[in-house]
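F.,

This is the one I mentioned.
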């Protein structure tokens, strides 16, 4: 039988996108059918909270103070001179016996 040279092309649907920009009418990927997402359970070993993760509790609370530049300079100088943090120097000066 002689070929006429005409072949039927498969019908290609134009892509349809949702409001977020994701294509919604994908049936396969390179000829491999996609799984039914209603029956697939996804899980990940990455991310999320892990036991023991994060900074350990010090028992201290953060406080925001508005100090004059001179007071800040004095605190920093005292901390540098004593080899302590600014918080340690400030706490020592604020403790009421």
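My design for it:
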């Amino acid at each position: 039988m002689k070929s006429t040279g005409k072949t039927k092309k498969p019908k290609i649907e134009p892509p349809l996108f949702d409001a977020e920009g994701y294509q919604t009418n994908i049936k396969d990927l390179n000829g491999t059918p996609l799984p039914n997402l209603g029956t697939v359970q996804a899980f990940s070993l990455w991310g999320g909270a892990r036991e023991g993760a994060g900074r350990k509790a010090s028992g201290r609370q953060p406080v925001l103070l508005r100090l004059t530049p001179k007071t800040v300079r004095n605190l920093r100088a005292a901390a540098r001179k004593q080899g302590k943090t600014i918080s340690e120097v400030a706490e020592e000066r604020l403790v009421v016996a």
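The chain has two helices and two strands.

Talk soon.
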